[in-house]
Amino acid sequence: MGFAGRPFMFFAVAVLGCSAGIALIGPASADVVPPETAPAAAPRPDDGTSAKSRAIHVEARLRVGEELDLGAAGRSVGDQFVFSGDLTSAEGGGESVIGRIGGFCVITDLERNAGQCASTAVLPEGQITVQGEQTGIPVPVPVVNAITGGTGEFRRAHGQVTQRVLTPATWQLTFELSGVRPHRTEDGRGPAEAPTPVHPSSPGK
C-alpha cells in the first residue's frame, strides 16, 4: 500500500501518542520538585573583583624640560611646558631606573601661573595616565592630580598621584592606585628594563 492509503493511520497514531504523553506528563509534573539553584560560579581572578590598592613611590629625573612661547611674545595663555625623563626607585637598596615619564602643561591662568597638565608614566607592568591642574609651572608647587587610567596591570586603575618638586629636575611622585593587584614578581625576575645610570640635569631654558 502506498502513502495515499495511510493518512488516517498516521493521524490515529499521532493522536494516541499525544494522549499518552499528556497522561504521563500531567500527574508527574504535579509532584516534581524544582531542582536547587546551582551556586554562582566563583569570580575569575582577572575580573577585577580581586583587585586591591597599591602605592608606587618613584622619583622623576627630568632630561627634557622646555618652555614653549606660543602665540603672543612673552608669557601668555596657551604657552606650554613639555617634559620627559626617567622614573627611578630606591626599592631593594640601590637606586635604579624602572621606567620613564613624559607630559606637558598648557598655561590657562597667568595670574596664578597655572595650567592643565597631562602625563604618562611608563612602567614594566603597563602605563599610568595622569591629568589635572598645576600651579607654579614650570616648577609646580606640591599638588595632587587624578589618575585617569592605564594599561596592562593598570588597565582598571584609578586614584591619585601626589607630586612634590625636590629640584627643578627631580620630582617625587607617589601613585595611590585602586583597582590593581599588589605588586608581585614572577619566578623571581625583576623589571623588564635593566637598570641604567641616572644623569639628572636641570631642564628648561
3D shape: globular
- Give the DSSP E fraction (strand runs of 2 or more residues): 35-45%
Estimate the helix proportion, in percent: 10-25%
Radius of gyration: 33 Å
Helix tally? 1
Number of strands: 8
For the sheet with most strands, the description reads: 8 strands, antiparallel, barrel
- The strands making up the biggest β-sheet line up spatially as 1-2-3-4-5-6-7-8
Mean pLDDT: 77
Order of helices and strands: HEEEEEEEE
- Unreliable parts: 1-30, 41-49, 185-202
Separation, N- and C-terminal Cα atoms: 106 Å
Structure commentary:
Mean pLDDT is 77; it is low at 1-30, 41-49 and 185-202. The longest helix has 25 residues, at 7-31. With 205 residues, this protein is mostly beta strands. Strand 6 and strand 7 form a beta hairpin. It has one helix at residues 7-31, and strands spanning 52-68, 80-89, 96-109, 114-123, 126-135, 143-150, 158-167, 170-180.
Tag the structure with descriptive keywords.
mainly beta, disordered N terminus
List the helices and strands and how they pair.
Blueprint: H1 7-31, E1 52-68, E2 80-89, E3 96-109, E4 114-123, E5 126-135, E6 143-150, E7 158-167, E8 170-180
Antiparallel strand pairs: 1-2, 1-8, 2-3, 3-4, 4-5, 5-6, 6-7, 7-8
Short structural summary:
The protein has 205 residues and is mainly β.
